[in-house]
Design brief:
Elements (H helix, E strand, L loop, with lengths): L8 E3 L10 E2 L12 E2 H5 L2 H15 L3 E6 L5 E3 L6 H5 L7 H15 L1 E8 L5 E7 L4 E6 L4 E5 L11 E4 L3 E5 L13 H23 L6 E4 L6 H15 L15 E4 L4 H4 L1 H16 L17 H27 L7 E5 L9 H10 L6 H7 L20 H16 L15 H16 L2
Antiparallel strand pairs: 1-8, 2-3, 4-5, 4-14, 6-7, 6-11, 8-9, 9-10, 12-13
Helix pairs in contact: 2-4, 2-8, 5-8, 12-13
Length: 440
């Protein structure tokens, strides 16, 4: 390991990161009290649904160690250097919890930093997802990358450390401002999430007030400030909050006029739905999967899941596979990691058996049965084809024979075609000979 003390380390600037508590989405937003608060955005129902949906769908997929055989086919295998840490990444998380932490950190912060723990042989036997706010990427004057880690007792970091990039797995995306710093989707969808929260908060306060809108008391003549203050306090005390809906008796020409836009006029439901759809679009999650709107009318589960996989999950899955391959010392060409995506893309039962029926000439019966979660049967390790199917070599040999027979036909004038029990085959063969004679 190079001596860090001899190198000039500079922290990576994070102009697009989420270090400030308050972020301006446009100049002057803060002064106008339009704030995007990170913790508040995380509580938005659509943002929460998208993050947890993506994290849970990826974490439930089993991680396989696969190796390419001599025929170029990837098959599952085991290896004492890689399999144990893939099954149990660390002492307090199983593989599902570990991958869930990985994906949530990436979605919420735009970055996932994983610290590698090695045994005496130098083999990675522990992986720990770190809090991105406790990590600072550092770059030397020669371009080498290090990471400054703050104290994290759960991950075994008892003091401030500076470690080389070889001991870190750094998964990031949306690197708009720096290649070592990713951006969370909250960067783009935060304002829509805050709008949705504002709508919900406003509705909550409205219904806490007995669904009675605020308003003003008007008098036919002028009143002093002291009288106005006394009337306001009297009205707030007796006819708002838990007292909303009580009967008020007004005299001296006093009138109450509501001053709040109706829900229909402000289109609260449409605005709330729109803000949720924007958040779903930022995460590339189909809106119906986050509980926003109705699902598509057609009932093809496989196509719906395939669209969700290719548009949303695949990038994250490929990133994790590539990072694990590199981080654990695998080349990704002959041996690597792979998520089991069959469970995610599983078809409905009728389609599964229809596909299995059509795959008879491609795989063995036992391979097909395994796809529908059935056990092997005796004699099921052979691929079967129907009798009328012929190899290309056999067809080429037959054509060569017929061409040769057509070329020698003048020397055999008057010769009859041999009798054959299959009259249709005889007629077909004679027709082919006539075709080949015409091609000479």
């Amino acid at each position: 390991m190079p001596d860090v003390r001899e190198k000039a380390l500079s922290p990576v600037s994070q102009p697009g990161g989420w270090w400030p508590i308050v972020r301006e989405n446009y100049p002057g937003a803060w002064q106008q009290n339009v704030e995007v608060k990170y913790d508040s955005v995380l509580s938005n129902h659509a943002d929460f649904a998208c993050r947890t949906l993506i994290a849970s769908d990826i974490s439930k997929l089993r991680i396989k160690l696969v190796q390419k055989d001599s025929a170029g086919i990837w098959t599952e295998t085991t290896n004492s250097a890689y399999s144990p840490v893939l099954r149990k990444p660390n002492h307090f998380q199983n593989r599902i919890q570990f991958i869930e932490s990985w994906v949530l950190s990436k979605l919420q912060r735009g970055n996932t930093v994983v610290l590698k723990k090695r045994d005496r042989r130098g083999i990675v036997n522990g992986l720990y997802v770190l809090d991105w706010t406790l990590v600072t990427p550092l770059v030397t004057d020669t371009g080498e990358v290090y990471y400054e880690l703050s104290v994290d007792n759960l991950s075994g970091i008892s003091e401030r450390l500076i470690v080389p990039a070889s001991e870190i797995i750094h998964d990031r995306f949306n690197c708009f401002f720096h290649p070592l710093v990713g951006l969370s989707p909250i960067f783009a969808g935060g304002l829509a999430a805050m709008q949705g929260l504002a709508i919900q908060n406003d509705s909550t306060l409205f219904f806490r007030n007995g669904a009675q809108p605020g308003g003003v008391l008007t008098a036919p003549g002028a009143i002093s400030d002291e009288t106005a203050k006394r009337l306001k306090e009297y009205w707030d005390t007796n006819f708002s909050g838990k007292n909303a809906g009580k009967v008020a008796v007004l005299g001296d020409g006093l009138r109450y006029e509501a001053m709040r836009a109706k829900a229909v006029d402000s289109q609260l439901i449409e605005q709330l739905k729109w803000s949720a759809e924007v958040v779903c679009g930022v995460y590339h999650v189909p809106a119906y999967k986050a509980g926003v709107g109705a699902p598509p009318a057609y009932n093809n589960i496989q196509n719906l899941n395939l669209e969700y996989y290719t548009g949303c999950l695949q990038r994250h899955i490929e990133d994790i596979e590539a990072c694990l391959d590199e981080g654990l010392g695998m080349d990704g060409v002959t041996i690597g990691t792979e998520f089991e995506v069959d469970d995610l893309l599983r078809m409905d039962t009728a389609t599964q058996f229809e596909v299995a029926q059509k795959a008879k000439g491609t795989g063995t019966l036992n391979e097909i049965r395994r796809r529908v979660n059935l056990g092997p049967v005796e004699g099921g390790d052979t691929i079967y084809l129907q009798q009328q199917d012929h190899s290309l070599a056999a067809i080429a040999a037959r054509d060569a024979m017929l061409i040769n027979q057509a070329n020698t036909e003048p020397a055999q004038a008057g010769a009859e075609i041999p009798a054959n029990d299959n009259q249709a085959e005889v007629e077909a063969r004679a027709a082919l000979i006539e075709i080949y004679k015409g091609l000479r």
